[in-house]
Amino acid sequence: MQCAICGKEAWFVCGRSGRPVCPHHARIEVVSRLSFGASDSFSVREASADDYPRIKEIAEYFSVKTHRRSFGVEYDLLKLPALIANTNSHVAGVLSYAAEENALVIVMLGVLPGYQGLGAGTLLVESIVEKASSQGKTEVKVATSNDDLPAMYFYQKNGFRIYEVVLDEAAESSADVQVGFAGIPVRDEVRLRRPI
User: Fold this and answer.
1) How far apart are CA 134 and CA 85, in angstroms?
2) 74: helix, coil or strand?
3) How far apart are the first and last CA of the chain?
4) Alpha helices of the chain — where are they, by DSSP H?
5) Which domains can be identified in the chain, with CATH numbers?
6) Which of 181, 122, 27, 33 is nearest to 19 (CA)?
7) 186 within 8 A of 177, measured Cβ to Cβ
8) What gap in Å lies between CA 137 and CA 194, rounded to an integer?
9) 46: CB partners within 8 A, 6+ apart
10) pLDDT reported for residue 30
11) What's the pTM value of the predicted model, to 2 decimals?
12) Predicted confidence (pLDDT) per residue in 21-71, tens digit
């Protein structure tokens, strides 16, 4: 899907026009929850070996490299365990994660545009929180960049709190991406956690 304005890869669909837009041309808008559909049609399962080509496609769709730096650690998404959100036998989203001594770390969470706002992301987060709890972990952590306002909104809405900002970490990790969501410069890594 290409941005209707510039032709680059689109990550979002405009709520007003229904046209696809890239992160640079996306804007924040206040909308009613009533504008979204139902969330009862998703299920979550562990990824199988057959899912990893699709996980790679979803990562590439969101311009996420399969080798991703987060919390100062380099992760290979194709070697991490993952959860898959399904609806009608279609992959709607993926959450890749890594284990630390006391936490599970969300390394990537992506929900395809046609399924955004319907509860797939929240279901993935609740599933990883349940998994962390069953493993005796004390928290789930995630890091995003300072420009990613949709991610910061999503995680805080789902019980995460900002606990640290590492200045210039995102700029160093994403040297090829200098301008992010809505034209905001990519600079800092914002770290959030949700206690269990």
Assistant:
1) 20
2) strand
3) 38
4) 52-61, 120-134, 149-157, 169-173
5) 41-195 (3.40.630.30)
6) 27
7) yes
8) 11
9) 81, 82, 83, 84
10) 58
11) 0.84
12) 988 898 887 565 544 555 568 999 999 999 999 999 999 988 788 899 999
The answer, yes or no, to whether residue 146 has pLDDT greater than 90, is yes
Question: Which amino acid would we find at residue 146?
Answer: N
User: Look-up: residue for tokens 């504008």?
Assistant: 35
Q: Which tokens belong to 174?
A: 């994403």
* C-alpha span between 161 and 157 (Å, rounded): 9
pLDDT digits (tens, 9 = 90+) for 156-194: 999 999 999 999 998 776 656 688 888 899 999 999 999
- Amino acid of residue 77: L
Q: What is the mean pLDDT of residues 125-140?
A: 99
Tokens coding 107: 């390394």
How many other C-beta atoms can be found within 10 angstroms of the C-beta atom of residue 72? 10
Token pair belonging to 43: 């299920």
Supply the DSSP symbol for 8.
S
